[in-house]
Write the structure tokens for this entry.
Amino acid sequence: MKCDRCKKKATVHLTEIDPKTKGKREVHLCQQCSWEEGITQKHPPITELLANFVLAATQTGEVANAECDACGMTFLQFRQGGLLGCPNDYHAFEKMLTPLLERAQDGQTRHAGKVPARTHGTEQQQVLLLRLRRDMEKAVQDEDYETAARLRDQIKEMEHPAEAEKV
Amino acid sequence: MKISEFANSSGEWLKGQGPDSDVVISSRIRLARNLVSFFFLPKCTDAQKCQIVETVSKVLHRVDPKLNFLRLDQAEDIDRQVLVERHLISRQHAGQTGARLVAFSPDERLAVMINEEDHLRIQVIRSGLQFEQAWAQIDQFDDRLEEHLDYAFDAQFGYLTACPTNVGTGLRISAMLHLPGLRLTRELDRVFRAAKDMRLAVRGLYGEGTEAVGDFFQISNQITLGYAEREIVSDFSERVVPPMVAYERKARRSLLQDHVRELDDKVFRAAGLLRNARVMGAKETLSLLSHLRIGIALERIRGVEMDTVNDLLLQTQPAHLQQLQGQSSEGGQMSAVQRRIVRAEVIRSRLNGFEAKG
């Protein structure tokens, strides 16, 4: 069926009944014309709604400034992309992540399963390792190979005790 | 390794064996893991992605020297598509860019994707309802990897994953079900609503974002945090899947009792078309194979085995047909029409001489 106004494909179909004469009048319109006639309302896409919601939240205090000091990911970037940047983000964004986790995980916020048999250094060491690796990449990009080599050795040294454990 | 060498056969998990294989095609468990000393993939440079591939593949080789390895970023597109159709990698893994690898066992029960959404995605697939066995295998393999790899783990959040919807156990469990009885008796909606209430996801044959065609569905868990792996696995394999199997069987029995003529008509029409058609589309094939499959399960037809139907589900997929063409002639990209013709030929060559039971 075609739109009464512009002859595009009609998607909105309306039957009006005159209260006095009881006569029927049928109206067929496409999406665009039905917005212009004020018969239907234009809905913003859901992604836009979500982005606005996050933006509004980010203007208030803490959320705005939340940034992981290991990988540089901001909470806003996470909300836009849906993926976190590094293990440390779980703590950097803990306050904001907790309600999201509760929703996604049916109220659960604490792991109850398997634990790796080997421990691999403290959390601080892990974050330090991530940072060293980032600095090393930057040094390589800047062609500062001296610094890169020093950082590489430092990383190896930190990882070495774990290596020795395996053998 | 050449993909074309093994594309002619099917993985062990499609053999149509294992408990409840009249309804449950396969049982799959997947674990998401990340290395502690690297950023998650969105923040990784190309060089770091290469390092991850090297580090993990070295360990995989040590843990199981029989695994096949394929660098996806260096593979042909057709090979990646074949792997997707075989459920060895995801569509996402095939389509993304950067260094990435798949390793899988010769029987295709075990596969590891490196650099998909997480550094490692380990999966085990078994035919029929075999979640306990699948869990035993993947748990042991995960332990052996962990002897050599430092996983990102946190006492509160468990195994840390790029997407918080996988955090905790990192465990996704799914059953591939064949539910033609529920479709024919119009009970599917009710079952799927119940599944949603139980916080389960229902998807098509190829997982996320795929349409359900031919009555084949994937049901999977969505909660990964707050429960032990064993709880998730036993809950799924004892409390989620068996009632669905029972419900499907009940629907099949009622079809046998009250609508046997219509049922036989569907089964034998499917058989006739599959055995005789010269041009066959993908969707039509799935729906006809579905009807043939219920005919075999209810013993309405004989001379064709369940594993042949399962096998055809895979061998009639586009990349598998293309692969076949590449082997038989000088190759070249098949047109859609050619593909439909080859599909019909493949089906005819596998289905000959079946007859009505009794």
The mean pLDDT of chain A is 78. Helices of chain A lie at 31-36, 46-58, 62-65, 75-81, 89-92, 94-104, 123-141, 145-166. Residues 1-42 of chain A form one domain. Chain A has eight helices and two strands.
